[in-house]
């Protein structure tokens, strides 16, 4: 009963949220970019290539967070069979993959001048690549399996198994010797990044998060429209 | 509280998830030495059967005052603060290569204390700060 009712309601809220984000996004983007590219100081060692970090780190965070939420929602879907969740996870995946690839590409661009190599098969970089492959698996399951139920089941399994990779990515730099440096920002304890660089980083994170939300909402809207077009009474 | 159906799904999920966690744990455990991107001088010292023909990577900190640069080669010592390894390299080094900074060298061991590298990668640490702050810190140390 409330499923039918919520579809129209969700649509209304998506419209409102999209408009709100659109109204503040470009201003915030300008502010964050001017802090990241102009106002923040260069690094004492890397010079200006530190600015790549302001895109790289937030992208990696968002890529990881998106996958974690896809996996947790998939678990919820598996347990309680809430049909709406399927649309949500399906809508998060493309933007999550985009940010994961962005993290890998910007990391590579940073690695060339800093480490002296574009790519290294170390634990952090490889596990991040595996995350991208899990995303691709998840999306491919929806794309190529025409039977809805089956596609949903297989993509959920991909997401839930992929969840194991998330802590491996997080702790890879502590468990093994890697070329990638350990985390500068720690959940507990002080961070090893100066506040004049931390501030633009956090700003960029919020801006990119807003962008992620915007793309997600647009994709979610499309999915709902697709359902409505099929003229189904329920999901 | 929970429906019987849901309970069944929970147990299925827990079994599936925990068994795949255990499987992956064992895979990582058996791969352990291969996952390490580089070996430290201590690893080299403790390792009994080293294949001197195989290319490996070693890593550590470039020891202070150990860097010698001449026309043919760059010589330095890497240390993990317990053991040391002498390294010889001819070629270009990345910008961040310096004394008291992390480095990864790729090449072949000649014996347990001498390594000829054919590629040098600089390792960046997790510290980020503006140059002015670094100058202040240097002054304070002196």
What does this structure look like?
Chain A is mainly α. Chain A has one domain. Chain A has helices at 2-39, 53-80, 83-114, 123-144, 148-162, 165-175, 195-229. In chain A, helix 3 packs antiparallel against helix 7 (195-229) and helix 4 (123-144) runs antiparallel to helix 6. Chain A starts with a helix and ends in a 6-residue tail after the last helix. Chain B has 142 residues and is of the alpha+beta class. Chain B has two domains: 1-35; 41-123, Beta Barrel (OB fold (Dihydrolipoamide Acetyltransferase, E2P)). Chain B is 35% helix and 29% strand. Chain B has three helices and six strands. Chain B has helices at 4-35, 41-46, 131-141, and strands spanning 56-62, 68-69, 74-79, 84-89, 102-111, 114-123. A five-stranded mixed β-barrel of chain B has the order 1-3-4-6-5. The longest helix of chain B has 32 residues, at 4-35. The interface between A and B is large, with 39 and 40 residues.
């Amino acid at each position: 009963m409330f499923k039918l009712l919520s579809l129209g309601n969700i649509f209304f809220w998506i419209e409102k949220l999209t408009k709100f984000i659109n109204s503040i996004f470009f201003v915030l983007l300008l502010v964050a970019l001017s802090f990241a590219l102009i106002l923040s100081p260069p690094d004492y060692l890397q010079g200006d290539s530190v600015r790549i970090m302001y895109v790289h780190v937030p992208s990696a965070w968002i890529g990881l967070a998106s996958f974690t939420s896809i996996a947790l929602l998939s678990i919820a879907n598996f347990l309680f069979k809430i049909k709406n969740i399927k649309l949500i996870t399906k809508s998060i995946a493309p933007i999550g993959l985009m940010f994961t690839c962005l993290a890998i590409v910007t990391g590579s661009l940073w690695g060339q001048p800093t480490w002296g190599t574009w790519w290294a098969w170390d634990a952090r970089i490889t596990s991040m690549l595996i995350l991208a492959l899990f995303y691709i698996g998840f999306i491919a399951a929806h794309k190529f399996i025409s039977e809805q139920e089956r596609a949903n089941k297989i993509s959920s399994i991909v997401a839930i198994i992929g969840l194991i990779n998330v802590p491996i990515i997080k702790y890879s730099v502590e468990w093994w010797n890697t070329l990638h440096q350990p985390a500068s920002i720690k959940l507990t304890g002080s961070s090893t990044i100066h506040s004049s660089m931390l501030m633009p980083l956090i700003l960029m994170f919020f801006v990119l998060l807003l962008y992620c939300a915007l793309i997600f909402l647009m994709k979610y809207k499309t999915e709902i429209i697709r359902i409505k077009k099929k003229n189904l009474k329920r999901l | 509280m929970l429906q019987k159906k849901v309970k069944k799904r929970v147990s299925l999920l827990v079994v599936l998830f925990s068994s795949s966690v255990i499987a992956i744990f064992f895979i990582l455990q058996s791969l352990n030495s291969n996952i390490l991107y580089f070996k430290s001088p201590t690893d080299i010292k403790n390792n009994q059967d080293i294949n001197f023909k195989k290319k490996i990577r070693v890593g550590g900190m470039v020891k202070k005052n150990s860097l010698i640069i001449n026309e043919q080669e760059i010589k330095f010592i890497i240390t993990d603060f317990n053991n040391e390894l002498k390294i010889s390299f001819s070629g270009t080094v990345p910008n961040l290569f310096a004394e008291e900074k992390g480095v990864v060298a790729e090449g072949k061991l000649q014996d347990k204390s001498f390594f000829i590298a054919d590629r040098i990668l600089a390792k960046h640490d997790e510290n980020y700060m503006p140059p002015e702050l670094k100058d202040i810190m240097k002054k304070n140390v002196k």
